[in-house]
Amino acid sequence: MATSPFYPPQRILMGPGPSDVSPRVLQAMARPTLGHLDPLFVEMMDEVKGLLQYAFQTQNELTMPISAPGSAGMEACFANLVEPGDKVIVCQNGVFGGRMKENVERFGGTAIMVMDDWGKPVDPEKVEAALKAHPDTKILAFVHAETSTGVRSDAKLLTELAHQYGCLVIVDAVTSLTGSELRVDAWGIDAIYSGTQKCMSCVPGLSPVSFGSRAVDVIKTRKTKIQSWFLDMSLIMGYWGGGTKRAYHHTAPVNTLYALHEALVMVQAEGLENAWARHQHHHQALKAGLEAMGIRFVVEEAARLPQLNLITVPEGVDEAAVRARLLNEYSIEIGAGLGALAGKVWRIGLMGHACNTKNVLICLGALDAVLSSLQAPIESGVAVGAAQAFYQA
Amino acid sequence: MATSPFYPPQRILMGPGPSDVSPRVLQAMARPTLGHLDPLFVEMMDEVKGLLQYAFQTQNELTMPISAPGSAGMEACFANLVEPGDKVIVCQNGVFGGRMKENVERFGGTAIMVMDDWGKPVDPEKVEAALKAHPDTKILAFVHAETSTGVRSDAKLLTELAHQYGCLVIVDAVTSLTGSELRVDAWGIDAIYSGTQKCMSCVPGLSPVSFGSRAVDVIKTRKTKIQSWFLDMSLIMGYWGGGTKRAYHHTAPVNTLYALHEALVMVQAEGLENAWARHQHHHQALKAGLEAMGIRFVVEEAARLPQLNLITVPEGVDEAAVRARLLNEYSIEIGAGLGALAGKVWRIGLMGHACNTKNVLICLGALDAVLSSLQAPIESGVAVGAAQAFYQA
């Protein structure tokens, strides 16, 4: 039987990502495909590189998008920097620290785990104790913005600590890039990866990465071959490395790179500091509305990510049923809790193009209506007004 | 300085890929992004899987697109099937056999090479000799359609041979899928990967793969963990495996999957056998024109891929200058030779949406005009007429 074309509805994506994509980005992606060695495409690649350097706040030459989602960016960092026998301290306070551990072990390293509760930031004291206890550690790896919990850890402080003890850092910035303050060069971050589908208003499928000079030295002086051909940065550099002569490595995802280019042009036009401030501003409005309703935040205020709000499900409420009604009746997607938090929390994203006044008010209104109709123990009918009052103040 | 949006020109992509993308596919890709766990998106994923099973001519349950280009699909096959110490016979008759060797070695295996000249198909006699000489071989790996040379090897016969000697096969079908006859189940292929940017008229960025039951058994009974988290099929199955409960593995490239869905709907509507015949038909027309001009094919007729035509550069002609003029004056991209063939050949692709009468005639006309203006030793002014005569016959 013939399959019909697929026409997706227009959702409002306020989960943990993908978030709403700007129509400008969608249109850019539909432009005619060029060859991946076309001189005009190669010029555009150079622009993407420059724009990513701006987004990461770095001068690192080795800054580019990996041709696959954020998980592959993580893998690119670990595959290139970890050799069999290396010791890596991995901070885990959510899902993605656990994935880092898997990466370390699959590339033959030993992972020393520093555990914090889900919903808490990485504890620098525990990290320092681990660094002291394991002086032969090569890398400290941590998540800047934990997508599973909405927690920000102190990337600047943790990087300083690592360097004091002679370690490199690998930083997961999937949910922070262009949404929260992040300064790769000023903070001295050695290797970092992100994703396009969060605060950059771009489609999923690419993973921006950046490697500093210390990390590049480690790659260049490896004793063993990188355990991946596709993610071998020493080969990828030949294609993304600049100059007019590009060595073919793999066929770049041409149209998705158009999308990233357009998203980054928009980031540049807004200004990075303005983008960070916008995420904070709408977070405050959402918070005013949620708290007026009586819904609590899980994460302590100092560690909250404005772009990803972890909130408690009111007592007695079937959280999955609420999400299904938001999706089916209002076309709004919010996220469920993961792991230990499953069933107890929601994750409301305010990322990139989705982070605006209209979405804050629609989301609060819809949540209010659905929870009220379920006789949930909340304060009905006040959330939208509280957010509006914040916007008008 | 502010970077401007990027507006690519409309090329005619007749190189080794990416090839022209159907406007229907580009439009599908620009539809609103859904969450990667949205019930409607999950339904679409099931359709993609079914359509890929049709394209591969297989009932294999484990059939899906890897969220990255063809090189990652290759890596997915080798990473999952090769364990340290395994012996793999790799047939090399172009660029991609060499990449297979890299893969085997990076995953800890030993590659036994069976070498054939670039431009020749894999020689089954040499393969059988290698299988006899190495009875402990686990896998035979070969390229069905060598993108670097335009050569088709006999996938059915090589698979039979491998099975006679108790080996699995890994087949590279990047350039053959939907362009040339390929029957995964009828031929008994155990593991196969392809790319979306060749004969499927889709954008680059995804790699369809399929694993048969013997390959799945090998994955399930591995002694060691797969040396990649991103490409670990046992984890990816949890997301693509069917059913309504999907385990999050990575964020799927949602919009690129819309593109693949649309491209596969078009393959289904045309019919696979019709698509194979269309590639053969326009190849014959191109051949009539090129031969009238006095340009020779490099590959013997029986092994020629209709979708990728390897032809000799006329004596005394600077091949790069010709390609540059075709691109700049006619917006036509054709491909250069690689490796030992660099400077001596061109590769003219007739793939997917680009494989049509109009492109054959435009390409012949442009090549005729450029070569004539350079006083190249060709027969001028007859190529287009020869192709037209073929079409009218």
UniProtKB/TrEMBL annotation, chains A, B:
Aminotransferase class V domain ranges (all copies): 36-338
Gene3D superfamilies given in the database record: Aspartate Aminotransferase, domain 1, Type I PLP-dependent aspartate aminotransferase-like (Major domain)
Biological process terms in GO annotation: glycine biosynthetic process, by transamination of glyoxylate
InterPro entries: Aminotrans_V_dom (IPR000192), PyrdxlP-dep_Trfase (IPR015424), PyrdxlP-dep_Trfase_major (IPR015421), PyrdxlP-dep_Trfase_small (IPR015422), SP_NH2Trfase/AEP_transaminase (IPR024169)
Residues recorded as bearing N6-(pyridoxal phosphate)lysine in the entry: 198
Pfam families: Aminotran_5
Cofactor(s) annotated in UniProt: pyridoxal 5'-phosphate
Residues that hold substrate according to the record: 347
Protein keywords: Aminotransferase, Pyridoxal phosphate, Pyruvate, Transferase
One Gene Ontology term of the molecular function aspect: alanine-glyoxylate transaminase activity
Family: Belongs to the class-V pyridoxal-phosphate-dependent aminotransferase family.
Protein name, per record: Alanine-glyoxylate transaminase / serine-glyoxylate transaminase / serine-pyruvate transaminase
Organism expressing this protein natively: Thiothrix eikelboomii
